[in-house]
Amino acid sequence: MFAPSTISTYVSAVRFYHKSHGWPDPTTDFFVSKLLEGCKQLHPDNPDNAALCPVWALQRFLHVRPASAGPLFCHFDCTPLTRFQFNSVLQKTLKFAEVPSERIRAHFFHIGAASTAVNAGVPYDEVCRMGRWRSNAVDTYIRTVPSYEVSGTPGTIFKALS
């Protein structure tokens, strides 16, 4: 896991690389700024906040989750959680973490998953299957993001900058 200062350095490198090539700067995206802000607030070096770090929590969760294909959040027999079960656990978790829950709802995860899948090139019918949609209601959940063409892998980009 990287320290917030290391992450900021990498983000600065991505910003520099894009600007030096005349490309749009993806680091100015709202989500990137919020993720950086969250990293600084929840960095595991602060023992009081270690359990709130989403990366740390996901890594811990993956150690106890059944090792099989399927939905990320599932029962031990790999059946998916119902919407009620997911929302119930979400609300209890937010309450435990003392995070105001009035603006966080389970359907935000549907929005994030559907949008990420579509933007990653997953076929529409597969997105519908994964989200258990039987109609075109999925269209109201999908948020498209601008695409950026970058030649090379992150490793080669950072090597070029050093």
Question: How would you describe this structure to a colleague?
Answer:
This protein is mostly helical. Helix content is 51%, strand content 0%. 4% of the residues are buried. The C terminus is likely disordered.
Topology of helices and strands:
Elements: H1 4-20, H2 30-42, H3 54-64, H4 83-96, H5 107-119, H6 124-130, H7 154-161
Shape: globular
Q: Could you state the order of secondary-structure elements as H and E?
A: HHHHHHH
Counted by DSSP, the helix tally is: 7
End-to-end separation in angstroms reads: 21 Å
Largest sheet: none
**Helical coverage, percent range:** 40-55%
SS-derived structural category: mainly alpha
Number of strands: 0
DSSP strand content: under 5%
Give the radius of gyration: 18 Å
Flag low-confidence runs: 149-162
- Average pLDDT figure: 74
Q: What kind of assembly state do the chains in view correspond to?
A: single chain
Pick out its properties.
162 residues; mainly alpha; 7 helices; globular; disordered C terminus
Summarize the structure.
With 162 residues, the chain is an all-alpha fold. The protein has helices at residues 4-20, 30-42, 54-64, 83-96, 107-119, 124-130, 154-161.
